[in-house]
Write a structure and sequence with these properties.
The complex is a heterodimer of chains A (about 900) and B (about 220). Chain A has about 900 residues and is α/β, with parallel strands linked by helices. Chain A contains 34 helices and 31 strands. Chain A folds into 6 domains: about 250 residues, 3-Layer(aba) Sandwich (Rossmann fold); about 160 residues, 3-Layer(aba) Sandwich (Rossmann fold); about 90 residues; about 60 residues, no CATH class; about 200 residues, no CATH class; about 60 residues, no CATH class. Classes of the chains: A alpha/beta (about 900), B alpha/beta (about 220). At the A-B interface, helix 21, strand 24, helix 29, helix 33 and strand 28 of A face helix 1, strand 11, strand 12, strand 14 and strand 15 of B.
Chain lengths: ~900, ~220
C-alpha cells in the first residue's frame, strides 16, 4: 500500500493524492489507510465491502470517496466551486432559490433503521457544506412527509438516504427508471444487520434492478466484523462480486469483558428469569458511572429491570429511561436525544440500541443475562468508551449460575476473535412474489428478462425455471389451483406484452404491504385520552379482558377496550401486572459461543477452574457433579426422572435453544413412532426436556438409535409436518406474499372483510393446494433457519462419536431446574388419538366463577377434562396444571403468558 | 354425536359443527360464510377453490344422515357481497335444487346484512334477527333474551386446553352457558376466537370427526 501511494505521488508530481486531503487537513484530520484504499477502489469503478467496528470512520471511507470523485470532475470541467455555505439538505426553502444548481441523484444511502436516517443525513451533509459542493441530501423513509415526497417527485436530491422498504416503494412507481438515471453508487450501511434477513433479500433484489438500469453502478457495503465477510460481500454484490474488494477498517478498540459476581452463591437462584438478587449490585454500578446502558435480551426483561431499578431508586425517575423496539418512535427518539445530550443516568434497552449513532456520554455498558453471541457482546461493549484511546468495557450480570460459565467462555472466544457469521437466505419465494408485483406496478414486467435479472442476486442464483414459472403464475393468476378462472388475474399483459397491474385496489394494498416485512401482527397501545405508547402483540391483547392490568412502557396500565387495531388503556394505580411477552425473544446461543461453553464445561469436568467466573460458579457446578454429572468433552448428558404427572428426560446438547428444540422434536417424533404416546417439549440454550405420561425407560443403545443421523431428513420433514412449526413460520410468508393484510396500527382497515389468519390460510392451502410452493418454503425455512439442519446434524454426529452419560435423578439438578421452570413450551408431538389427548387436558375458565376460592393466582382456573363419557369427573379446586405443587417462589411469579411482577 | 339436554329439550351435537334437534327435525348451524374464499380471490388474494364445495358436501352428509325437515342457520350464511360470484351462487343453487324439500331458514347475521338480499334461487326464508321456536330463541349475537334460551353464533368459539407440563391446544367448541348457547362456526374457511366459559357451562370441543365434552365443575 505504501508503495502504491508512492507511485501515485510520483505521477502527480508532489501534489496530494486526493483533493479531499486539503479539507481533511483543515479539520486537523488525517485519513486512515483503509479510507484511502476505499477511495482508490471507488474511483477505479469498483464495488466492495468495508468492515470495521463502530465509530471508526466507515461511513466517511465511502462518502469522501464519492465527494472526491465530484471534486475531480468539477476540476476537469473547470467548474468553479461556489464559495461559502452551499444549499442545505434538499428540504429547505433555499432549494427553490437555486434549483438548477444541485447535482442530480447520484447516491442512494440505504440504512436498516429509519430512525437513523436523520442522523446519517446530518453527518453526510457536513463535508458538503464546507466543500461548497452543489449537492443536496434528502430523506426517503416511511416517515417522509407528503411535502418531501412531492419535492422529490419534482427533483430527487443528489444523495438520498432511505431504507430497503422505501427503495422497493420507489421501484413500484412507473417513473422509477427515470429517477435513477444518473445514479452512480448505492451504499448499504450496517449490511450485517440486513444480511440473513428478508429485508436483506429485498435489498438484493432492488440492487439487481438498479444495476440493470445502471450497468456501471457501484455498490458499497459497510459492515461490522463478521465470521463470513467474503460471503457477506458476495451477497451484496450479486453477479458483480468477482470485481469486488473487501477492505478491513481500523483495528478494533480494546474490549474488556467483566462480570459482576454475585456476593453469595448459596442464595443465588439457579434460574431467575429476573435475576433480581443482583439488583443491589447493578444499582451500585450505575451509581458509580456517569451514564449507563443496561442491555437485556428481551423486551419483557427490559420492562422488568426498568421497574426494578426505578423501584430501588425512585429519586432517579427523571434520569432513567426505557428503550425497546415496541415503544412508540417518538418516545424512543426522545430517550436517544437525552442520552446523547448526557442527561440520562441509565437507559434500560434491548437490541434497539445495538445500532445507531454514538452516545458519547455513555461510559458504562451492562449486559443482563446471556450474551448469546460473541459478536453481539463486542458490539454492545462498543457502545461505551467513545473517547479516543478509551477502552470498551462491558459488565455482565448473570441471571443464573451457568451464565457465569458463558461469560468466561465468551471472553476467551472474543479474545481469539471467533466471531459468528450470518447465513444469507436462499430462495425466499414469498419475497420474489412481492418483488414481481412491485415491478409490475412500476414499469411492468418482462418475464424472461426479469428471470435473468433476479438470478444475478445471491438469494436467487439457483432459481429454477420451474420455480420462476410457479412464482409468476402465483402472482399473476393465483397459481395452478386458480387456472381456470381468468377473472382473478392480478397481473395482465399490456400492449407491449409486459405484465402490469390495472386494479388501483391491488396497487394500494400492495404498496401498503411492502413496508410490513418485519412487523409482527401488532396492535397499538394508546391512552383513552392521550398519546400512543407503542405496540404489543395481538396474541397478548387477545387474552386481555377489560380491567386487566399489564406492564408496558415502564407503567402499569389497565386495559379498557380493543378497537380498530388499538388497545385502549388507562393508567393504573396498582403496582402489579403481567408483562407482555414478545415473540422475537428467543435468540439462540450462537454456534461459536455454544462451542466455547461446551469446551469450558469440559475443562471444568476435568477439574480446571480458570478465571473468577468459574471459580464463583464452583459450588453450583459441584452440586451438578454430585447429583448428576458435568458433561466432559465428548459427553452427552441425559438425566431421567419420574414425577407425579409424568416421566421426564433432560438431555443437554448445549446447542442453542432452536437446535435443541429441533433435536427434541426429532427424538419425540421417533419415540412416538414406536406406539401411541404424547410428549411435550421444553428447550433452552443448554438442552431440552421431554415430558410424557408414559415412561421412557430407554437404554443407552435406545438413546443412540433415537439420536442417529439415519433417515434424518425424512424424520425432520415428518416433524415439521406433524407439528405447528411450519404453520407458525407461514405467518411471515403469507404477509410478504400478499396473502394477509394485517394493516398497521392506525391505518384504515379498508380490508376488514379480507382478514384471515395465516394459520387458516395455511390449512386451506394444505388441503386444497398442497403443491403450493409457499408451503414448501415454510417447511424449508423451518429446516434451514429454525432447526438449522446443518448445525443439528453436527450435533448428532458429535453425539454419535462421543459417549452418553445417563443419570437418574432424584431432584432437579442445576441444569434441569431452568428447563422445569421455563414454561414456554409450545411443541407437542403425539401419535395418540385427538380425543385421548383431550382427556388429559384442562380448559381455562372465566375467573369470576372462582373468585371465592382462595387461589392467589389471578389468572383462570383449570378444570380437568372428563373421559369421553357424558359424566364429567370433577377435580378438587386449587390443584395446579403445572407439575408439583409449586412451592418454589419463582413458580408463583412466572405465569403462562408472560412474567408476573409484583413490586 | 353427543347428546345434550338443555331447556327441557334433547339436542345432539355433531363433530361436523352442527346441532340436531330431533323433536323438531331441525338441523342447526352457525357462521357458514359461504363464498368467503371467492371474496378473497376477487380482491386478488389467491385462496384455492374447494372450501365452499366441502362445506356443501358436509351439509349434504348431515342432511342425508338425519333427514331434517328444517335447516336453520343462526346467522352469517354468506361472507360478503363480493363473494357471491356467479359461480358461488350457481353452486349453492344446485345444492338447493337437490334438497328442495328442506325448509331453509336463516337468521340475519352481521355479514348477511352487509351482503344484502340472498339470491332468490336459493329460496332461503329470512328469519329476521330473532326466531323463536319452543323454548329457544335463535339469533346471531349471543345475548340473553327474555323470550327464552338463546342459541347463537357469531363468536366462532374455541377454548384453550392445557395438558401435562405446558402442553397447549386450541379447539373449536359448542358452548352452553346458563342463558345462551354459542355454536362453533360451520364453515371450513373461518377462524376461531378464544372464549372463557364459566364454571358449570357445557363445553364440547370438536376436531375433524371427534367430539369430547369437557368438565367445567369443581
Amino acid at each position: 500500500m505504501i508503495r502504491r501511494h508512492a507511485e501515485v505521488a510520483e505521477s502527480n508530481v508532489a501534489a496530494p493524492e486526493f483533493l479531499i486531503d486539503s479539507w481533511l487537513a483543515k479539520q486537523g484530520w488525517q485519513a486512515f489507510d483503509f479510507q484511502r484504499e476505499t477511495w482508490r477502489a471507488y474511483l477505479a469503478g469498483r464495488s466492495g465491502l468495508v468492515h470495521a467496528s463502530t465509530g471508526t470512520g466507515k461511513s466517511y471511507s465511502v462518502w469522501l470517496g464519492l465527494l472526491e470523485e465530484a471534486l475531480r470532475e468539477r476540476q476537469l470541467q473547470c467548474l468553479p466551486l461556489p464559495p461559502g455555505p452551499s444549499p442545505a439538505r434538499g428540504e429547505g426553502r433555499k432549494k427553490k432559490s437555486e434549483p438548477a444548481q444541485a447535482d442530480a441523484l447520484r447516491v442512494l444511502w440505504i440504512t436498516p433503521m429509519r430512525a437513523l436516517a436523520n442522523d446519517i443525513a446530518v453527518a453526510l451533509e457536513r463535508p458538503i457544506a464546507e466543500l461548497g459542493l452543489p449537492w443536496t441530501i434528502g430523506l426517503r423513509t416511511g416517515d417522509a412527509s407528503a411535502a418531501d415526497r412531492r419535492r422529490q417527485k419534482a427533483r430527487m436530491p443528489t444523495a438520498l438516504v432511505t431504507t430497503p422498504e422505501s427503495l422497493s416503494l420507489l421501484l413500484s412507481y412507473p417513473d422509477a427508471r427515470e429517477r435513477f438515471q444518473s445514479l452512480r453508487c448505492v451504499v448499504v450501511d450496517e449490511w450485517h444487520e440486513l444480511l440473513g434477513t428478508k429485508r436483506g433479500v429485498q435489498t438484493e433484489l432492488g440492487l439487481a434492478r438498479l444495476r440493470q438500469w445502471r450497468p456501471t453502478l457501484r455498490t458499497w457495503g459497510l459492515s461490522a466484523t463478521l465470521g463470513n465477510l467474503e460471503e457477506a460481500r458476495d451477497v451484496l454484490l450479486g453477479d458483480v462480486a468477482d470485481s469486488g474488494v473487501l477492505i478491513r477498517g481500523a483495528a478494533p478498540k480494546e474490549t474488556r469483558v467483566e462480570t459482576l459476581l454475585p456476593a453469595t452463591m448459596e442464595r443465588f437462584p439457579w434460574s431467575g428469569h429476573l435475576g433480581k438478587r443482583m439488583l443491589p449490585q447493578v444499582v451500585e454500578a450505575i451509581e458509580k458511572a456517569k451514564s449507563t446502558l443496561v442491555f437485556t435480551n428481551t423486551r419483557s426483561q427490559a420492562e422488568i429491570w426498568f421497574r426494578e431499578i426505578l423501584h430501588a431508586k425512585p429519586q432517579w425517575a427523571a434520569e432513567i429511561a426505557l428503550h425497546h423496539g415496541s415503544l412508540d418512535r417518538g418516545v424512543r427518539a426522545y430517550v436517544e436525544g437525552r442520552t446523547r445530550g448526557g442527561a440520562m443516568r441509565c437507559v434500560v434497552c434491548t437490541s434497539s440500541l445495538d445500532l445507531g449513532v454514538d452516545f458519547a456520554p455513555v461510559d458504562q455498558v451492562i449486559q443482563i443475562g446471556s450474551p448469546k453471541g460473541i459478536a453481539r457482546l463486542l458490539q454492545r461493549a462498543g457502545r461505551s468508551g467513545h473517547r479516543p484511546g478509551a477502552v470498551s468495557r462491558i459488565l455482565c450480570v448473570p441471571t443464573h449460575a451457568f451464565e457465569l460459565v458463558e461469560y468466561a467462555a465468551a471472553r476467551e472466544a472474543a479474545e481469539a476473535r471467533r466471531l459468528e457469521g450470518r447465513r444469507p437466505l436462499d430462495l425466499p419465494l414469498d419475497l420474489l412474489a412481492q418483488h414481481v408485483v412491485t415491478l409490475a406496478l412500476g414499469e411492468g414486467v418482462d418475464a424472461d428478462a426479469l428471470y435473468n435479472e433476479v438470478r444475478t442476486t445471491y438469494a436467487f442464483r439457483r432459481l429454477t425455471p420451474e420455480q420462476w414459472r410457479w412464482t409468476l403464475d402465483f402472482v399473476q393468476r393465483g397459481g395452478p389451483a386458480l387456472h381456470a378462472y381468468p377473472q382473478y388475474s392480478k397481473l395482465v399483459p399490456d400492449d407491449g406484452g409486459r405484465l402490469v397491474i390495472r386494479s388501483p385496489q391491488t396497487a394500494r394494498l400492495h404498496r401498503m404491504s411492502i413496508g410490513t416485512i418485519t412487523s409482527d401482527a401488532s396492535v397499538a397501545v394508546q391512552y383513552l385520552k392521550g398519546p400512543r405508547l407503542g405496540t404489543i402483540e395481538e396474541s397478548f391483547v387477545a387474552r386481555l379482558k377489560p380491567g386487566d392490568q399489564f406492564i408496558f412502557a415502564g407503567k402499569t396500565l389497565e386495559f379498557v377496550r380493543f378497537r380498530d387495531l388499538k388497545a385502549y388503556v388507562r393508567k393504573s394505580t396498582k403496582k402489579s401486572g403481567t408483562v407482555p411477552r414478545w415473540e422475537g425473544g428467543r435468540l439462540p446461543l450462537s454456534t461459536e459461543l455454544a462451542g466455547a461453553v461446551r469446551a469450558k464445561l469440559g475443562e471444568i469436568a476435568a477439574g480446571s477452574y480458570v478465571g473468577p467466573e468459574t471459580e464463583k460458579a464452583r459450588s453450583i457446578l459441584d452440586i451438578q457433579a454430585a447429583w448428576s454429572a458435568v458433561p466432559a468433552a465428548g459427553q452427552l448428558l441425559i438425566e431421567t426422572a419420574h414425577v407425579q404427572r409424568g416421566h421426564q428426560a433432560f438431555v443437554y446438547p448445549f446447542e442453542g435453544v432452536l437446535v435443541n428444540e429441533g433435536l427434541a422434536t426429532l427424538v419425540a417424533h421417533r419415540l412416538a413412532q414406536a406406539g401411541p404416546r404424547s410428549i411435550s417439549i421444553t428447550s433452552n440454550d443448554y438442552g431440552f426436556e421431554l415430558l410424557s405420561p408414559q415412561p421412557f425407560d430407554l437404554s443407552e443403545e435406545a438413546w443412540r438409535r433415537l439420536l442417529t443421523t439415519e433417515h434424518l431428513l425424512d424424520d425432520l420433514a415428518a416433524c415439521v409436518n406433524s407439528t405447528e412449526m411450519a404453520r407458525r413460520r407461514f405467518r411471515d410468508i403469507a404477509r410478504v406474499a400478499g396473502l394477509i393484510f394485517s394493516g398497521y396500527p392506525g391505518a384504515p382497515t379498508a380490508a376488514r372483510q379480507l382478514q384471515a389468519s395465516s394459520g387458516l390460510i395455511f390449512d386451506v392451502f394444505r388441503e386444497y393446494d398442497p403443491e403450493n410452493m409457499l408451503l414448501e418454503q415454510a417447511r424449508r425455512e423451518v429446516l434451514e433457519q429454525q432447526l438449522e439442519t446443518r448445525r443439528l446434524t453436527e450435533a448428532l454426529e458429535r453425539a454419535a462419536a462421543g459417549t452418553i452419560v445417563m443419570r437418574p435423578i432424584a431432584r432437579l439438578t442445576p441444569l434441569a431446574f431452568p428447563l422445569w421452570a421455563a414454561r414456554i413450551q409450545k411443541t407437542q408431538v403425539s401419535s395418540e388419538k385427538w380425543s385421548k389427548r383431550v382427556e388429559r387436558m384442562v380448559v381455562q375458565l372465566e375467573r369470576e366463577a372462582t373468585r371465592t376460592t382462595k387461589r392467589k393466582q389471578t389468572g383462570s382456573v383449570p378444570v380437568e377434562v372428563a373421559p369421553t363419557t357424558n359424566h364429567p369427573l370433577p377435580l378438587t379446586p386449587g390443584s395446579s396444571p403445572a407439575r408439583g405443587e409449586g412451592k418454589n417462589a419463582t413458580d408463583s411469579q412466572i405465569k403462562q403468558r408472560g412474567t408476573h411482577v409484583a413490586t | 354425536m353427543l347428546r345434550h339436554e338443555v331447556a327441557g329439550e334433547t339436542l345432539y351435537l355433531s363433530a361436523e359443527r352442527a346441532m340436531w334437534w330431533p323433536a323438531r327435525r331441525t338441523l342447526i348451524a352457525a357462521d357458514v360464510h359461504l363464498g368467503k374464499a371467492a371474496s378473497f380471490r376477487n380482491a386478488g388474494v389467491p385462496i384455492p377453490h374447494g372450501t365452499t364445495r366441502t362445506d356443501l358436501a358436509r351439509l349434504t352428509a348431515l342432511v342425508e344422515k338425519l333427514r331434517p325437515t328444517t335447516l336453520l342457520i343462526v346467522g352469517d350464511l354468506v361472507h360478503d357481497r363480493r363473494g357471491l360470484t356467479e359461480e358461488t351462487v350457481a353452486q349453492i343453487a344446485a345444492w338447493r335444487m337437490r334438497h328442495g324439500e328442506l325448509d331453509w331458514l336463516c337468521v340475519t347475521g352481521n355479514h348477511d346484512r352487509k351482503a344484502g338480499n340472498l339470491p332468490a334461487v336459493w329460496s332461503v326464508a329470512p328469519a329476521g334477527d330473532r326466531w323463536k321456536v319452543g323454548p329457544f330463541v335463535f339469533k346471531h349475537h349471543p345475548e340473553p333474551d327474555a323470550g327464552g334460551y338463546v342459541v347463537a353464533g357469531h363468536l366462532h368459539p374455541a377454548v384453550e386446553l392445557r395438558g401435562v407440563g405446558k402442553a397447549r391446544m386450541k379447539a373449536a367448541c359448542f358452548w352452553f352457558g346458563r342463558e345462551v348457547a354459542v355454536l362453533p362456526a360451520f364453515g371450513r374457511f373461518t377462524g376461531t376466537s378464544i372464549v372463557r366459559p364459566a364454571s358449570g357451562d357445557g363445553v364440547f370441543v370438536v376436531e375433524r370427526d371427534e367430539i369430547v365434552q369437557l368438565a367445567t365443575t369443581h
